[in-house]
Design goal:
It catalyses: D-erythro-1-(imidazol-4-yl)glycerol 3-phosphate = 3-(imidazol-4-yl)-2-oxopropyl phosphate + H2O; L-histidinol phosphate + 2-oxoglutarate = 3-(imidazol-4-yl)-2-oxopropyl phosphate + L-glutamate; L-histidinol phosphate + H2O = L-histidinol + phosphate. The chain is α/β, with parallel strands linked by helices. It is about 35% helix and about 20% strand. It has 15 helices and 21 strands. Strand 8 and strand 9 (about 290-295) form a beta hairpin. Helix 3 crosses helix 4 (about 105-110), helix 9 packs parallel to helix 11 and helix 12 (about 390-405) runs parallel beside helix 15. The termini are far apart. The protein binds pyridoxal-5'-phosphate.
Amino acid sequence: MDITSLFRENIRQMAPYSTARDEYEGELGIYLDANENPFDNGFNRYPDPHNKRIRARVAQMRGLTPDRIFVGGNGSDEPIDLLFRVFCEPRQDEALSIAPSYGMYRVAAATNDVWLVEVPLTADFELVADDLLARVTPRTKLIFLCSPNNPSANLLNPDEVEKVIRGFGGIVVLDEAYIDFADHPGFLPRLAEFPNLVVLQTLSKAWGMAGIRIGFAFADPEIVAAMERIKYPYSVNVITERLVLQELEREAVRREQIATLVEQRKRLVAALEKLPLVKRVFPSDANFVLVRFDEPRRVYDRLIERGIIVRDRSRIAGCEGCLRLTVGTPSENDALIDALTHIDEPCNAATVPQSDSGRRVTVTRRSRETEITATLDLDNAAPSHIATGLGFFDHMLDQIVHHGGFSLQLEAQGDLHVDEHHTIEDTALVLGEAFRRALGDKRGIGRYGFALPMDESRALVLLDFGGRIAVRWDARFRRERIGDVPTELFEHFFDSFAQAARCNLHIVARGRNEHHKIEGIFKAFARALRMAVERKPFDYSLPSSKGLL
Ligand SMILES: *Cc1c(COP(=O)(O)O)cnc(C)c1O
């Protein structure tokens, strides 16, 4: 089979755009070829246009040669679009896909002005190869299959898939976005057997890199070469390249996560099957389940009220009544099951479950003396709102938020008519707990923080989120109060914080102005916090305004 005979005429004729970096193969040298800014900041150079490093690594992992790997700079959506452009003449050629399936095939077909015929799967979402092949016309150039299929979640019968590949004279695109969750190796190990097969895989799902946007097409070298010819040059940027190479080294972590998600899927399915409002749970080989309800819209709305967002697929032909539920962390799945179990009970905002993804947490603490709720986000600087009833204390907490670059919404109702003690102590405990929980497994954080800002007062704060607790306080105040806060309670605040956050905290302050001294402590504390919780994939800037260290 001569694959190039299937290409569009213009693609066959076309010479690729040659980038500056195409002409020189070496690594070292003085680069005066691409009009870049020569001063190094880590990303002043163009990336490798042919993704050699990523391809080499993936080739090694998948047991393929690099010339069978196309790297897509916008997930696997990019290869889907490119395949239409390589193989389909606009307004003339056709493509086939199964239905229901992934919506992107239709979008890419429409964008390229190619007629897409969607052939329904059976009511149980099974593929019947003969039904599909019966719809092939001389104009059919591409067939899209998706296994495990989205949104139905089932692996398509591999024998039927093979029958389609063997029975079709054009290109079969097999989207294996979810293959890592299935108990089947997929078709990648057999790629060389089928010159007309393109396997799509993405790093967006099992690999945890949806935010990075990278995906792969695995195919005959001629097809890969054609896609390389027409893609945007440099579609994978240097930051993505580095992150991908870094993440691909963490295969063990990923295997563990996949095993957890498969385990959770089983648990979720078992729990769903017991619920009276569930009509049917379709079998899943992916990290989501398609579930049929009597009243999907009502269930969907009630889940939203409880802060749980799922995908409503009920208006898609074949998926009537169905919602698609992604498998989350164990506690997220608990929250989902709990919400579905109590779907008809009224809910209030306080019971809205918190996602434990991202570094945003809500901590609530109620005691006889105080009631405090704090929502802390380590990675966003807004919104913030602080109300403890103590003006000066609010002002100090605001220093933490402002100079730390955090978002904090904190409301405290305490027995201020008795004393400030409980409100300040419990606020510190809630804040410390919020930091401890938001840091999660602490992967990638700076861990240590230190700060020493100078005014006419100075404050030194040293911080370590290593997990041990120790507090050194070396600051004395001559006044009994600053604003509405007794000065003795500042030490107590930091002590309580350190206990709840589980950190080492050393604080030294000197100075004449009592107000400046305590403000300096809170500012330095904020800076130290920022430094310690910061989680950057990589950072090329020098921590010095002079540009050298
Ligand atoms: C999520 C998904 C993709 C991948 O999308 P990216 O663009 O790589 O993030 C591809 N195919 C299917 C069926 C999917 O569900």
